[in-house]
């Protein structure tokens, strides 16, 4: 027998050696290119980082010196030594910047620049600044007309700053050149990579082509020989004994296969005859098996029906579905024609199979009588035989019988939980069948008990869910393993971007990472949640986090541990939305900041000029100038305080409005006449295109609205220009446009322009100043007048604010008469009028007493409520001037007002309230004649008293509140 030659050079090993060699060459080439690429990239990044550090030092140096120069200018402008100290304090920052430059300097130009900086630094702080401070102090803090100012703004400072800029630009050019060199090397590397890959691909294709040719031709010859063998023809198998690979082995295998086929052909013929004999024997066995299969199929059908019954019992927790499945499947198991099952509880649930509706109703109506009573009493199944009814017989005329089976379903306590009744016409129920069906009822009882337990637990679950959903905080229930098991609807609303399925049945840590991406301080939030998972939090511990999104929210979360007995079973996390409270706190902070800035500025002027007038002898014209400044700053301070109070009253809903018919044209003209005098750099134009200019409103508040808009038009056009006011009709509204040619408003700020404390954040507007309350007050007043305010603006081109009031086409005649009757004839000084002034502020009381006595009034002054009340009862004055906030130990103003008006002997005395509280509605309701809100000009009190007495005299003791000043 010829021995097979072993395979010494397999095709796979040949290809493997080629691929290993090719891969090694390819890998070496790629590694070389990658190493070279890493080197040029590292060189580029190292040089770039050096340049960026130098840039940062230069930027810091420029920023520091700019701040120093500005601070010193501020010191020479205002004389504030704290500003000067800030400038000197920044020397350390300059030295740090110089040191950074020295550390990074590697070029000659760097050392030259550092030398310039050090020389200028010594000159500035050792020479220039001390000289200027001496000049400034020698002039007693007055810088005006000082020749040192020009020296301070010398060319050396500008030259130094220019040298910083030039050095900065040179570093920019170095960075750009470094990037260009790096790009050139990268491009060269890419071309080298392309050439290397192309060369390797060409080499691989050449090797593969040679190998395919050496293997493909022998395989093709063997394939042709295989086709000839399969066709039953003789063929000579090509031999490749000279080869030592799989081709030689395949050739020898074909030879052996042909010989084996020929030897086995005779054996197959003999086996075929034997198989034919066995086929006859198998046919007989098949007939026996078919009979056995029929028996098995019958049993299988019974088992299938019982499985369906078990499936209907266990596959659903819906009571009605289970009942329907029970009655239908048991009918199939019993071969019953129809049946019914009914529960014996308060639900009266039932299900029927094969019954008419009226038959179901009849059975349920007699559920607690007749045959069912016997079933409940005995608690055992029984069967009865009866004649079929005509309806049951159908077309049959002979006598037929029906067999009814009554079966109880007993609960775990032995009570009848349900009853079943089944009827069939074929044959009676045997005792074995009845016993079998009673066993089936045990499974039904277990299923019904399971449904009852489920319904009870579902009721409790839904009740718990409804309770949780009524809570206004988001609630998370976490089990002892750290998995979220339940959340309420409020919690789902907090994270609208997160799907509801991702809120439950997930670990708390996984949920925390999911929502942490939308939280401002995500790391702190994750740390808190990790502490919750580890059980390291306390009930008193709180954590506040901010949710970013279309609607920003501020949430406070606290933790409560849940115990069942002494065992901890979970943790309850409560997420409370405190956005509004947080916004209120932010608003308070903004308010304090605004008040600190806006109120201290006029106070500083008042105190400063007052101190000058007290400590120095000034010329009369200088005194007049200072007094005028003090008066203007005091008015400004008063306006600011009034704005704050107006906002507070509007927010609390206590802002009172005295509405009447008001013509807006005179108000506009008076304001424009004043602005033409005070602001000569602006031109003021009024265009009126309608005669219907009367509105129903509070004249003072409408005047406040117009003054705010006119003031803004002038203030935000600091370079002058035209302020144009247009009055026109638009549908059912009378509108007023106030247009300026000033700074304009950025588009992104328009939606917030009427928000309280909001100010456009840019340097031009910050220099102008303001509280950010004016436009919010305008908006609130317009809403109270059923009107609106809107704005259109173009940056650097100006803004147009539009007021819209409901149009009044015709005035009410009685209102016109009332308005005409309000104006009083000119009043003259009275010398026979006794006035009692009740004011706890002694300085203000002295001021009012002096004002009234100068106008001829006889004045008694009191600060204590009880003393004032005794004086009123004793002297019965002609008029009372009453403050509301008096000494806490005595009666307040409201008590005095109420006591006077309830005294028959005193009720006709006019009482003029003089208070900082703007509660006019309450004052008039208690009987006040007039209500003056502090601060007000002292002469207004004298005028008000005279007008009040004149109206009283004309009306015959009938007091009418005056609206004239």
Automatic annotation (TrEMBL):
Enzyme class: transferase
Keyword terms: ATP-binding, Cell membrane, Coiled coil, Kinase, Membrane, Nucleotide-binding, Phosphoprotein, Transferase, Transmembrane, Transmembrane helix, Two-component regulatory system
Keyword Cell membrane: yes
Native source species: Bacillus benzoevorans
Protein name: histidine kinase
Domain HAMP, chain residue ranges per copy: 213-266
One Pfam family named in its UniProt record: HATPase_c
Presence of keyword Repressor: no
Lineage: Bacteria, Bacillati, Bacillota, Bacilli, Bacillales
Cellular component GO terms, alphabetical: plasma membrane
Membrane topology: Multi-pass membrane protein
Modified residues (4-aspartylphosphate): 883
Catalytic activity reported: ATP + protein L-histidine = ADP + protein N-phospho-L-histidine
Localization, UniProt: Cell membrane
EC number: 2.7.13.3
Residue ranges occupied by any Histidine kinase domain in the UniProt entry: 594-809
InterPro entries in UniProt: CheY-like_superfamily, GAF-like_dom_sf, HAMP_dom, HATPase_C_sf, HATPase_dom, His_kinase_dom, HisK_dim/P_dom, HisK_dim/P_sf
TM region(s), chain numbering: 15-36, 188-208
Chain coiled-coil ranges: 258-306
Any GO molecular function: ATP binding
Main location: membrane
Stretches assigned to the Response regulatory domain: 834-949
Source species, domain of life: Bacteria
């Amino acid at each position: 027998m010829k021995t097979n030659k072993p395979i010494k050079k397999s095709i796979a090993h040949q290809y493997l050696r080629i691929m290993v060699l090719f891969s090694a060459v390819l890998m070496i080439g790629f590694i070389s290119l990658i190493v070279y690429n890493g080197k040029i990239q590292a060189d580029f990044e190292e040089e770039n980082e050096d340049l960026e550090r130098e840039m940062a030092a230069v930027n810091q140096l420029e920023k520091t010196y700019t701040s120093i120069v500005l601070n010193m200018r501020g010191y020479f402008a205002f004389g504030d030594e704290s500003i000067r100290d800030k400038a000197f304090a920044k020397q350390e920052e300059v030295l740090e910047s110089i040191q950074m430059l020295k550390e990074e300097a590697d070029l000659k130009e760097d050392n030259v620049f550092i030398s310039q900086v050090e020389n200028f630094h010594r000159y500035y702080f050792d020479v220039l600044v001390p000289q200027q401070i001496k000049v400034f102090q020698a002039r007693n803090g007055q810088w005006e007309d000082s020749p040192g100012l020009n020296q301070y703004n010398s060319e050396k400072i500008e030259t130094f700053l220019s040298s910083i800029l030039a050095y900065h630009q040179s570093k920019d050019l170095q960075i750009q050149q470094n990037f260009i060199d790096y790009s050139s090397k990268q491009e060269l590397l890419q071309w080298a990579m392309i050439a290397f890959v192309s060369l390797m691909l060409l080499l691989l294709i050449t090797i593969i082509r040679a190998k395919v040719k050496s293997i493909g031709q022998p395989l093709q010859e063997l394939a042709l020989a295989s086709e000839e063998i399969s066709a039953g023809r003789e063929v000579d198998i090509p031999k490749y004994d000279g080869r030592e690979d799989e081709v030689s082995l395949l050739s020898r295998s074909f030879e052996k296969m042909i010989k084996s086929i020929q030897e086995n052909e005779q054996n197959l013929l003999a086996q075929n005859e034997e198989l034919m004999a066995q086929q006859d024997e198998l046919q007989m066995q098949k007939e026996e098996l078919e009979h056995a299969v029929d028996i098995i199929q019958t049993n299988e059908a019974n088992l299938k029906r019982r499985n369906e019954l078990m499936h209907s019992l266990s596959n659903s927790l819906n009571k009605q579905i289970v009942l329907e499945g029970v009655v239908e499947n048991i009918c199939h198991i019993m071969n019953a024609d129809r049946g019914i099952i009914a529960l014996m509880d308060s639900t009266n649930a039932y299900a029927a199979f094969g019954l008419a509706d009226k038959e179901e109703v009849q059975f349920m109506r007699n559920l607690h009588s007749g045959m069912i009573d016997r079933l409940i009493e005995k608690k055992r199944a029984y069967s009865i035989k009866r004649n079929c009814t005509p309806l049951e017989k159908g077309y049959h005329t002979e006598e037929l019988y029906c067999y009814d089976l009554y079966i109880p379903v007993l609960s775990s306590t032995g009570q009848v939980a349900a009853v079943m009744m089944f009827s069939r016409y074929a044959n009676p129920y045997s005792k074995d069948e009845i016993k079998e069906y009673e066993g089936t009822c045990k499974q039904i009882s277990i299923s019904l008990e399971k449904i009852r337990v489920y319904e009870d637990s579902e009721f409790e679950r839904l009740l718990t869910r409804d309770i949780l959903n009524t809570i206004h905080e988001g609630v998370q229930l976490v089990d002892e393993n750290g998995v979220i098991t339940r959340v309420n609807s409020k919690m789902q609303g907090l994270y609208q971007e997160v799907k509801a399925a991702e809120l439950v049945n997930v670990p708390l840590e996984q949920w925390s990472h999911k929502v942490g991406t939308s939280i401002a301080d995500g790391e702190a939030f994750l740390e808190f949640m990790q502490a919750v998972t580890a059980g390291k939090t306390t009930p008193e511990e709180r954590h506040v986090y901010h949710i970013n999104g279309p609607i920003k929210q501020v949430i406070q979360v606290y933790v409560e541990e849940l115990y069942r007995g002494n065992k901890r079973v979970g943790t309850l996390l409560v997420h409370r939305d405190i956005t509004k409270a947080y916004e209120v706190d932010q608003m308070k902070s903004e308010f304090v900041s605004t008040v600190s800035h806006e109120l201290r500025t006029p106070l500083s002027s008042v105190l400063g000029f007052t101190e000058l007038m007290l400590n120095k002898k000034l010329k009369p014209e200088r005194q007049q100038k200072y007094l005028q400044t003090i008066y203007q700053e005091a008015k400004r301070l008063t306006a600011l305080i009034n704005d704050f109070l107006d906002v507070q009253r509007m927010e609390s809903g206590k802002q009172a409005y005295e509405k009447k018919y008001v013509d807006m044209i005179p108000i506009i003209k008076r304001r424009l006449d004043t602005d033409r005098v005070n602001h000569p750099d602006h031109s003021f134009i009024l265009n009126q295109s309608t005669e219907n200019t009367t509105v129903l409103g509070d004249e003072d508040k409408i005047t406040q609205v117009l003054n705010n808009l006119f003031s803004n038009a002038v203030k935000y056009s600091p370079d002058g220009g035209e302020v144009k006011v247009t009055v026109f009709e638009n549908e059912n509204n009378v509108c007023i446009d106030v247009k300026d040619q000033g700074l304009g408003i950025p588009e992104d700020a328009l939606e917030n322009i009427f928000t309280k404390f909001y100010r456009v954040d840019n340097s031009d507007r910050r220099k102008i100043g303001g509280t950010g309350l004016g436009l919010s007050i305008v908006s609130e007043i317009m809403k109270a007048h059923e009107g609106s305010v809107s704005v259109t603006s173009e940056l650097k081109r100006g803004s147009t604010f539009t007021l819209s009031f409901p149009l009044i086409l015709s005035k009410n005649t009685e209102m016109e008469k009332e308005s005409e009757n309000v104006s009083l004839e000119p009043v003259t000084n009275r010398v026979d009028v006794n006035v009692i002034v009740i004011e706890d502020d002694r300085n203000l009381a002295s001021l009012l007493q002096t004002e009234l006595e100068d106008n001829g009034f006889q004045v008694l002054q009191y600060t204590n409520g009880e003393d004032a009340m005794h004086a009123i009862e004793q002297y019965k004055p002609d008029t009372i001037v009453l403050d509301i906030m008096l000494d806490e130990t005595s009666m307040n103003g409201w008590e005095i007002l109420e006591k006077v008006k309830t005294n028959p002997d005193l009720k006709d005395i006019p009482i003029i309230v003089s208070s900082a509280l703007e509660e006019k509605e309450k004052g008039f309701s208690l009987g006040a004649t007039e209500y003056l809100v502090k601060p007000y000009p002292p002469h207004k009190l004298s005028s008000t008293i005279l007008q009040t007495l004149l109206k009283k005299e004309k009306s015959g003791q009938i007091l009418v509140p005056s609206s004239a000043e």
